[in-house]
Design a protein that fits this description.
This protein has helices spanning 14-24, 44-48, 61-67, 79-91, 105-118, 130-145, 165-175, 241-250, and strands at 4-9, 29-35, 57-58, 72-75, 95-98, 122-124, 148-155, 198-200, 203-209, 215-222, 227-234, 257-259. The protein is an alpha/beta fold and 266 residues long. It binds 1,4-dihydronicotinamide adenine dinucleotide (NAI) and the ligand O=C(O)C1=N[C@H](C(=O)O)C[C@H](O)C1.
Length: 266
């Protein structure tokens, strides 16, 4: 697949800037427009010095997605705006590739139905890093043998949603193979609220936010006289970009929504 015309929403954010670099450095994707909160009509070339990127910024997503001739929307914004952009893109026949996390279950199911009705391929991936996808798959495998598990996710302190999309997706995958049950002592109490973390069917999720972190997760399994830790670290946001590129290419072959990069990895 060559020359896929791409709109990037959130081009000046931490992930958006990496996505622009990735698009600039390869030949299958070309940037045709951006959606941002401000800088109407300016280009990322003028604003951030991206060479050869003359595509202009729209501040109105509805106008951009209805007027610009594009194949794919890459959304790297915020939960509320990411949901709106994804819906508008599907309605306009533009295939969304969504990295934005924090959508509710209702929003995900609404988008899934809309994508099927319209036959518009859509990929929503809570984590585009190949290592993180493997970490989630290894965790699902391990949970068959170790049903007591806690997830610790650690992110930079500018992150809006907690727990992370990756932690939720990990818990969802583990749920497929683990029977719900309470973990820890049956009479345990929290003397400080939140001490035991969030609860998914008895599994615990703990979220840490600190400056200096990028994106990290440990899935710790406890057994009889042993523990197993599956751990992944994104130490730079370029770790997500091979997954974004792959998704932008593969979404062209889909006519439904898939949630998770594992569905398109060989
Ligand atoms: N799936 C994955 O592999 C990854 C997903 N993420 C997710 O991607 C999203 C973005 O993350 P970061 O780049 O770290 O955040 P960021 O805060 O650095 O960037 C978000 C950008 O969205 C823009 N924005 C806000 N409202 C907008 C609107 N209405 N229209 C257009 N743009 C708007 C902001 O101006 C900002 O530039 C988050 O939801 C995060 O959880 C982050 C890393 C990896
Ligand atoms: O906000 C981030 O940074 C990240 N968000 C995604 C998530 O919520 O899982 C992916 C990755 O962890 C980085």
């Amino acid at each position: 697949m060559s020359n896929i015309k791409v709109i990037v929403a959130g081009p000046r954010g931490k992930m958006g800037k990496e996505a622009l670099k990735m698009i600039h450095n390869q030949s299958t994707l070309s940037l045709v427009a951006c959606i941002d909160r401000k800088h109407e009509g300016q280009s990322v070339k003028e604003l951030d010095g991206f060479p050869d990127m003359d595509a202009v910024i729209y501040t109105d997503a509805a106008t951009c997605l209805s007027e610009v001739e594009a194949d794919v929307l890459i959304d790297l914004t915020t939960p509320e705006n990411g949901y709106k952009h994804t819906k508008l893109a599907i309605e306009n026949g533009i295939r969304p590739v969504v990295g934005t996390t924090g959508f509710s279950e209702d929003e995900l199911s609404e988008l899934t139905n809309l994508a099927s009705e319209r036959g518009v391929g859509t990929i929503i991936a809570p984590n585009f890093a190949i290592g993180a996808v493997l970490m989630m798959q290894f965790s699902k495998w391990a949970a068959k043998h170790f049903p007591d598990v806690e997830i610790i996710e650690k992110h930079h302190d500018q992150k809006l949603d907690a727990p992370s999309g990756t932690a939720l997706k990990t818990a969802e995958l583990i749920k497929e193979v683990r029977d719900p049950h309470k973990q820890g002592h049956e009479s345990e109490t929290e003397t400080l609220e939140g001490a035991r973390g969030a609860d998914v069917d008895g599994m615990k999720i703990h979220s840490m936010r600190l400056p200096g972190l990028v994106a990290h997760q440990e899935v710790i399994f406890g057994g009889h006289g042993e523990t197993l830790t599956v751990k992944h670290d994104s130490i730079h946001r370029e770790s997500f970009m091979s997954g974004v590129k792959l998704a932008a290419e593969r979404v062209m072959e889909l006519d439904v929504l898939v949630y998770g990069l594992e569905h398109i990895l060989d």
